[in-house]
Automatic annotation (TrEMBL):
InterPro entries: Hydantoinase_B (IPR003692), Oxoprolinase-like (IPR045079). This is Acetophenone carboxylase delta subunit. The keyword Coiled coil does not apply. One of its GO terms (molecular function) is ligase activity.
Length: 592
């Protein structure tokens, strides 16, 4: 009997599992320490994964969910595209959503790992590049009516071939991008990450051999499969529905509803997505990206233990609906905003469908992304800079049945994996002055358990005019709460972009837009908080007072949203007025 046909012993299984996790973590560390752009080295907007020869994902990092779900169909699309034309020393690059990429700013590198002449693994690194060409810096073009107006599409292409670097191909790619120096540094960092992963995987094979390692990997897949099937089996068989509304964020087509219907049979689940026809606006989502949204909605509900690999999804069948719809777009639909909008709405719909099947697992939604990109000419160097301000999309986490939502942990699409980076490093790298970065008061959804706060980020250009691009949503409708949490003052929970002029006049932007500001002017971006859980008038009074003293909620919101009256001078609770307000609210609930 071969090793692959017999049970792997638990010690070897644990060692192989640890080696896989170490290989992936070292890929992440390599990328962080060698990348050049702030999107990579500060914000960590990248993901690394390992695949076997099949190719199936054998380990996903604790990285960006919007990347990880799409990596599985993208890896298969790339492998199928090249077929037998894959050789030792090849490196493939790709961003095209038609080939299951997420959006064209997420450029992915695939390195096949050969051992004794046999393809055994793939090391894969996907990252959000600072610019991808096109008419708008940083790629988010709200005026695009088709994908050709958004930037450079890269179908699967070899940038190293049998160990030889294709400088002509790489030059073609970088010649279409702004801030070339950053792009070159980030590409080299991705190559380094994939190479470090390859080195560690070969060392693992040297120690245990191909058959033993494959047997361990299959056992880890089976373990993940068992974890998910055990959960699905605990849910009553039946059909369940969830839906969420995507707000009109500037396309003029009105609100759009995305729905998810799930059918559970024994340990299997079928997920059907229904969405409107695709639109001439940059919020369409191609299939690879939508798979990420669906799987994130599932994982938010499931919260299963590791390992996290493709075995988790053996029991899951996904139907994204008719081709040519918002969540199953076809060429030439514009799409660059899709990794936040409509992905986060799709995720909410899927999560809510599962929660309809198991109400005891209900949680509030996390804040959706509502951020900005900036660009300009650095007056000290004459070079163009472009960056996505990931700090500007840091929103709040949703509350649960047991606890408040975490502050500054979102947005939903990144689910805690994004970092905002140090203000000083951003000011060192770009000709900007950051006047403010902190929690946005009153942004967390009210509830018995409060949603986490979103953030406010305010910037001024130094010595030059700066382009500001607003993208995302959460500026019309606040984040969804759960278990009866009401939006008593929804205007406090919304995202928004404000341009503050030198004379103090402030322009408010609630739609996706491209604008410019000059020295002395400021762009202030506020992100929505997470949703609340339960009746806010049942929140512990001491917790409300603590939030007021820490400026998480204002004195006015404490009274309006929680029925807690706080003296503005002493910051003490007026117990008599508070009791009267809460009793009044209770009586109104009974009448309603």
């Amino acid at each position: 009997m071969s090793t692959s046909q017999r049970s792997i012993d638990p010690i070897t299984l644990s060692v192989v599992r640890g080696a896989l996790e170490t290989a992936q973590r070292e890929m992440t560390t390599t990328l962080e320490k060698t990348a050049r752009s702030s999107v990579f080295n500060l914000a960590h907007d990248y993901s690394n994964a390992l695949f076997d020869h099949m190719p199936e994902m054998i380990l996903q990092g604790q990285d960006i969910p919007i990347h990880l779900g799409s990596l599985m169909p993208a890896m298969k699309a790339v492998a199928e595209y090249y077929g037998d034309d894959i050789h030792e020393g090849d490196v493939i690059y790709h961003n095209d959503p038609v080939f299951m990429g997420s959006h064209i700013l997420d450029c992915c590198m695939y390195k096949p790992v050969f051992y004794e002449g046999e393809l055994v693994f793939w090391t894969v690194c996907k990252g959000h590049v600072t610019d991808i060409g096109g008419p708008v810096p940083a790629g988010y073009n709200p005026d695009a009516k088709e994908i050709y107006a958004e930037g450079l599409r890269i179908p699967p292409i070899k940038i190293w071939e049998k160990g030889v670097k294709r400088t002509d191909v790489i030059n073609l790619i970088h010649s279409n991008m702004r801030s070339r120096r950053n792009q070159e540094g980030d590409l080299n960092a991705q190559y380094g990450a994939c190479s470090v992963g390859e080195r560690n995987m070969i060392a693992l094979l040297d120690k245990y051999g191909v058959e033993t390692v494959r047997a361990a990997i299959e056992e880890l897949k089976n373990m993940a499969d068992n974890h998910m099937r055990t959960l699905i089996s605990s849910i009553p068989d039946g059909q369940y529905h969830g839906e969420a509304v995507l707000e009109d964020s500037g396309h003029g087509l009105g609100d759009l509803t995305i729905s998810a219907d799930i059918e559970i049979t024994d340990s299997n689940v079928y997920i059907k997505i229904t969405s409107p026809p695709q639109v001439p606006y940059f919020i369409n989502s191609y299939a690879g990206n939508s798979m990420s949204g669906v799987l994130l909605g599932l994982m938010m509900f499931a919260q299963v233990d590791p390992p996290y690999n493709e075995g988790l999804y053996r029991c899951v069948t996904v139907d994204l609906g008719e081709h040519g719809t918002l969540c199953n777009a076809k060429e030439p639909a514009p799409h660059v905003n899709c990794t936040t909008t409509p992905m986060e709405t799709l995720t909410d719909a899927v999560r809510m469908a599962f929660e309809a099947a198991a109400p005891d697992r209900v949680i509030a939604s996390w804040g959706h992304a509502s951020g900005i990109n900036i660009s300009g000419i650095d007056p000290t160097t004459g070079e163009q800079y472009v960056t996505m301000i990931l700090a500007s999309i840091i929103s709040g986490a949703g509350a649960t049945q047991q606890m408040d939502g975490w502050h500054a942990c979102g947005p939903l699409c990144c689910f805690g994996a994004l970092s905002s980076g140090d203000i000083e490093l951003l000011e060192y790298q770009y000709p900007i002055l950051i006047h403010k970065y902190g929690l946005a008061e009153d942004s967390g959804g009210a509830g018995k358990h409060r949603g986490g706060c979103g953030t406010v980020w305010e910037v001024e250009p130094l010595g030059h005019d700066m382009t500001v691009v607003a993208f995302g949503e959460g500026r019309e409708y606040p984040t969804m709460g759960a278990a009866g949490a009401e939006q008593i003052s929804p205007e406090l929970k919304l995202g928004r972009l404000e341009i503050v002029h030198e004379d103090g006049v402030t322009d408010l932007y609630k739609q996706n837009t491209v604008t410019q500001i000059s020295p002395g002017e400021r762009a202030r971006n506020t992100n929505p908080g997470g949703g609340g859980y339960g009746n806010s008038f049942e929140r512990d009074i001491a917790a409300v007072l603590k939030d007021v003293r820490e400026r998480i909620i204002s004195i006015e919101a404490a009274k309006l949203e929680y029925g807690v009256v706080v003296d503005p001078k002493t910051l003490q609770v007026d117990e008599k007025q508070t009791a009267a307000l809460r009793e009044q609210q209770k009586q109104q609930k009974k009448i309603a």
